[in-house]
Amino acid sequence: MHEQKRQLAILGSTGSIGTQALDVVRQHPESFEVYALTANNQVDLLIRQAREFLPEMVVIANESHYETLKAGLQDLPVKVWAGQEAVAQVVEAEPIDMVLTAMVGYSGLKPTIHAIKAGKTIALANKETLVIAGELITQLALEHRTPILPVDSEHSAIFQCLVGEGDNPIEKIWLTASGGPFRTFSKEQLQKVTKNEALKHPNWTMGAKVTIDSASLMNKGFEMIEAKWLFGVTPEQIQVLVHPQSIIHSMVQFEDASVKAQLGMPDMHLPIQYALAYPQRLPAPFERLDFQRFHTLTFEEPDTEKFRNLGFAYEAVRQSGNAPCILNAANEIVVAAFLNDQISFLAMSDVIEQTMAAVAFVAAPSYDDYVQTDAEARAKALEITHKISNSNLLV
Ligand code: MG
Fold first, then answer.
1. What does the DSSP 8-state code read for residue 63?
2. Which of 33, 78, 242, 341 could form a disulfide with 300 if both were Cys (CB 3.0 to 4.6 A apart)?
């Protein structure tokens, strides 16, 4: 039987997940077709991708690159747009079956809402969308009967463990974490770590923002919140487990005490392909897991004294309302500041903590409340960041 090719919109096509998704498409031209590509800033790469995959439309979010993009594709029948608003609108195009949200941070929220309302299947790589507005997004997806398929490796693992389980309740999720490059560091050592050290993840190749989030364990905090919304469990049912080899990508424990795990080499191509092709498993050339090389798999408790961000995430999700949105906004500001050498690794957590205490709590936020909370929390986090970086200059 011949199935129609799945028409994809890839948002954030020039980033780490986006380029790996295009690798998957390149391997399986019989299964996928690229209908739309969007990027934020990397216009040259976007042009190359568009010339190779010939989508119907491309969007560059940063409008200052519009002329370059247009000139680069003028000999091709590709529609070209620019601006954040255009990113949110292309996802509604009728032929699109699936939208891969692979952009970074808050910018994923609006296009995801548009895609859900247009009834598109979401392959969710932008975890911040569920961190910021998990309740709103899951409610909308339910209303519009839109599946949200996880791309994050842990959530893909959990999702794969649940295939065939029907209504069997989840007792517990074991959310595995590599622990990042600073897992064994003391607090004193953590005080002095540089961005280059933080950008060297031991197991995974990822974009800069998520790599810093992994080093600070904020990524695991976000993933806990993401899991809560994707799988309808409470935060108490999600236990973070440090597993430095990153071979077990997460586990589900059922009410009969059985635990299912999904294993594989740490390679994002696999969870990306699983989401894009779901429910099919397509053949892939990815590296096979060699148990001779990984004969010891180890597990540890996460250290929330050293890595305070994980604790903040549990606190934010306990408070609920706009608290996770404040957490995310503050984190986006401090990660950018850390990457600009404006604050230290540990100061990131100080700014997040103070921002969470300073921004007004909203118990049942609307979409507009999220927009306002995000703006307010960013301004507050920037102010605190400047205070901290100035006081360091004086020392
Ligand atoms: Mg992950």
1. G
2. 242
Q: Dihedrals φ, ψ of 304, to 5°?
A: -80, -5
Interval between CA 6 and ligand 1 midpoint (Å): 25
Q: How far is the CA of 206 from the centre of ligand 1 (A)?
A: 10
Ligand 1 mean position to 323 CA, how many Å? Answer: 21
Number of domains observed in the structure of the chain: 2
pLDDT digits (tens, 9 = 90+) for 27-37: 999 999 999 99
Q: Which two tokens stand for residue 145?
A: 């009967």
3-class DSSP assignment, residue 250: strand
**What CA–CA distance (Å, rounded) separates 391 from 395?**
7
Residue 244 included in any domain: no
393 CA → ligand 1 middle, Å = 35
C-alpha of residue 28 to centroid of ligand 1, in Å = 24
Structural domain ending residue among the three candidates 150, 172, 194: 150
Q: Domain of residue 330: give its range.
A: 321-395
**In CATH, what number is assigned to the domain containing residue 71?**
3.40.50.720
Give burial (CB, 10 Å; 0-12/13-18/19+) of 251.
buried
Separation of 152 CA from ligand 1 center, angstroms?
A: 5
Q: Cβ–Cβ contacts within 10 Å for residue 193, how many?
A: 17
Closest CA to 326 of 367, 385, 380, 366: 380
Q: How far is the CA of 352 from the centre of ligand 1 (A)?
A: 21
| Domain termination site, one of 131, 150, 169 | 150
Task: Tell me the per-residue pLDDT of 184-213, one tens digit each, with 9 for 90 and over.
Answer: 999 999 999 999 999 998 888 888 999 999
Q: How far does the centroid of ligand 1 lie from the alpha carbon of residue 155, in Å? A: 7
